[in-house]
Amino acid sequence: MLLYEHLADDFSSLIANGQIRPGERLPSVRHLAQQRNLSVSTVLQALRTLESKGLIEARPQSGFYVRGRGMRLVQGSSHDEVKPAVEVGLSGNLMKVLHQNESAGMAPFGSAIPAPQLLLAPKLNTLYSRIARTQPKLLAKSSHGHVNEDKLVRALMRRYLEWGTHLHSDEIIITNSCTEAMMLCLRAVTREGDTVAVESPTYYLMLQLLEAMGLKALEIPTHPSTGISVAALELATRNNAVAACLLIPNGSNPLGCVASDDNKRAIAKLLAQRNIPLIEDDLYGDICHSKQSNTSANNSANGHPRPIYSFDESGNTMLCSSFSKTVSPGLRLGFVAGGKRAADVLFQKTVNSGNTNAITQNVLAELIESRGFDLHLRSLRRKLSDQIARTRDAVERHFPTETRITDPQGGFVLWIELPEGINTMNTHALAVKEKIAFVPGALFSPSGNYSNFLRLACGHPWSPQLDDAVKRLGAIVGKQ
Amino acid sequence: MLLYEHLADDFSSLIANGQIRPGERLPSVRHLAQQRNLSVSTVLQALRTLESKGLIEARPQSGFYVRGRGMRLVQGSSHDEVKPAVEVGLSGNLMKVLHQNESAGMAPFGSAIPAPQLLLAPKLNTLYSRIARTQPKLLAKSSHGHVNEDKLVRALMRRYLEWGTHLHSDEIIITNSCTEAMMLCLRAVTREGDTVAVESPTYYLMLQLLEAMGLKALEIPTHPSTGISVAALELATRNNAVAACLLIPNGSNPLGCVASDDNKRAIAKLLAQRNIPLIEDDLYGDICHSKQSNTSANNSANGHPRPIYSFDESGNTMLCSSFSKTVSPGLRLGFVAGGKRAADVLFQKTVNSGNTNAITQNVLAELIESRGFDLHLRSLRRKLSDQIARTRDAVERHFPTETRITDPQGGFVLWIELPEGINTMNTHALAVKEKIAFVPGALFSPSGNYSNFLRLACGHPWSPQLDDAVKRLGAIVGKQ
């Protein structure tokens, strides 16, 4: 037996006995080499052997970790059937849950907001301070219906151009948030009582927007790895009953899937042909970490998969986004590229809130143009990816074996399926008492689906406290 | 004949001969005393004699001016009749006019925006710079549905308390503008197709809001000096057909009237009894300069007449405002005190734009709490009052004698009535070629009233250029 085989054998036993558990990190290569008096290359060979057997996995810039027993993945629905559109009425429950999640001292698996230390509020403060001093005329300007600072428009165009997406300066409208951007688009293209197609499951705020506007939701089956079913969308939009689509193709929330370029192209074509406006939420585009994205057509220089918008030359797609997940949730600045309906969106912006603060626009422009910003994004993606992996490990260790879980390619939330019969609204009530926040699955569907699902947000750096919270949550689930 | 009688006689002749014209300022008391070798008290006696004869008038901190020949005032409608509600469809014309008004080099009688040098953008810059440095955590915060910075809420409460208006901290919602505040209120209490009662004439943005939401406008006769007709409002709201009222009781735009406290009390009572929500725009409350306001019940320490809100203990009134006319139109920060419907307004805020930038909130809070702010308001009121007087003088000198004009008690716009048959949309087309901006009367009514009216904004310090612009505008009108 060779030296590296000895070492590999030792660790195989330790893992088999449960002495090193799934999700735990092995000692560093250097440490092992010193400890066992082996060469670094021998240790590396041992680790590669374990890796090839599927017992451990390397995580970039972090080390080698014991792989889980292979928790089962959440399955997509097996059919492309679409149920009739329904009215949305979950806002009462939603507000209650979100309010409870914000009590002091809750384990932060609720809202999908990165921990402050992962973001750039300090840089924003510096920029505010400097720009307010050096560009004193910004707040003196006022103009009816002109909402954009050119500098920010150009910065957005340059960024999107890097991954093959041409925004046009005359279709961009700076807004007070991505939420406002989507709302303005909905107002521009729908009327009360209309039907809007959404992914199923979809982000609860999308459903709340529809509820607030008296719009019906049409749930389109969406697969955790491939995204929305194009076939189902085709079926659902045949009879002119859909006024608009509201989708998150890059890092769908809560599934974390990124649609393939082929599917994006097909969706762009289908909706343009049928003249059904697509409102595309690209909020998670900058924090996709799909394993495929380096090898597939989703490939792009800085990791941002192309949005559907970039496959649509007809102007039918309205691209909405902001930097609330990558810069600061408190900045309150988003934008929409409104395509052929930009004038209607601008009208809505004018009457709904008027212009947008020009200092804040210049602050954001300078930040995203700064040399360090792409480095920041890379680092953020790595950290979020690590946090997701840690949380998955913990769920695997602490939740019942029947649990299924997603392997997200974008964003930083996990979607977890518990055995049927468990109602996660009840789980939530129990978890709140244990100071654990999450969002129950029922809030991601207007028609009562996903009552045995829950969403865990992975916005915070891993800690023993978080591990303990997952453990206690697993215990609550286990008793139900 | 006494010395002072001689001097008074001289000036009487000069005025009668047109050698000193209406609106022109007399030489200063000191100057006259030196020039004529008279004592100051003799000069003053002469001036008081002229004043008592109605030939000149004193303007605070500015001097003595030749009074006009007494231009006739715009008359209110003589009846309390209310015509049926109508759909609003003037946005196309409005956008065109506002766009033309913003061409470079236009005489600035268009939008009601004070000149930058009258406002506080430099102070805002200083505060931005300091607050971003000294309160680095402001942008790191994020919370679903909590939009307020406590410091701004407290500052607003303190300010309103000074003139007898108790805002409650739990009903205040900070917004991105007064426009957003009103829009959120409308969304909270109306549905597409509903009818909203407005003053007639009313601010075109109000009508644009209704148009954007598919709401009908019910025009309530409003008098240039006494404000909206309470009798007409009573009549119009008898049969439950009105979903909400959207009014500007303090410095109505374009009439500039301030409703009396009695009328405010009556309106509050009427609408509360009938459970018809009142959305009250108090944007001009801080820049009212009613002559009555020092002697009547409108009296208040710092010149802000009480809003209807303060006469309504039922929670039926939703008070909306911002500091865009007194601090900076570019700040983009407003608020609403939502009364008993505050939760519904907050829900609308959450889904329409989410939270509001916390640095900007603290900047405004510090500014309006600063010791100089009330002094600034006093100075601003004086300047605006002077600009109104100068513009009135110029209109009197340069417009046809049949012209009627308002004597505004609030805000800084003049509402001018031309002989019937003149269509001010045509006047506007001609004026644009002469580089003169204003807003045609037709844009203040959804039913085609006021086509022979126009609104002149008096936001800019008086100058020979402005006088010349009024002269050329008068010539255009004269030829029509």
Could you describe the 3D structure shown?
The structure is a homodimer of 480-residue chains. Chain A has 15 helices and 18 strands. Chain A is α/β, with parallel strands linked by helices and 480 residues long. In chain A, strands 4, 6, 7, 8, 9, 10, 11, 12 and 13 form a 9-stranded mixed β-sheet that branches. In chain A, strands 3-14-15-18-17 form a 5-stranded mixed β-sheet. A two-stranded antiparallel sheet of chain A has the order 1-2. In chain A, strand 7, helix 8 (204-213) and strand 8 form a beta-alpha-beta unit. Chain A is globular and about 75 Å long. Chains A and B meet through helix 4, helix 5, helix 7, helix 8 and helix 11 of A and helix 4, helix 5, helix 7, helix 8 and helix 11 of B.
List the helices and strands and how they pair.
The structure is a homodimer of 480-residue chains.
Chain A: H1 3-16, H2 29-36, H3 40-52, E1 56-59, E2 63-66, E3 72-73, E4 86-87, H4 91-101, E5 107-108, H5 121-134, H6 150-162, E6 172-175, H7 178-189, E7 195-200, H8 204-213, E8 216-223, E9 227-228, H9 230-236, E10 244-247, H10 261-273, E11 278-281, E12 317-322, E13 334-337, H11 342-352, H12 358-369, H13 373-398, E14 404-405, E15 413-417, H14 424-433, E16 436-437, E17 439-440, E18 453-457, H15 464-479
Parallel strand pairs in A: 3-14, 5-16, 7-8, 7-10, 10-11, 11-12
Antiparallel strand pairs in A: 1-2, 4-8, 6-13, 8-9, 12-13, 14-15, 15-18, 17-18
Helix pairs in contact in A: 1-3, 2-3, 5-12, 6-12, 7-11, 13-15
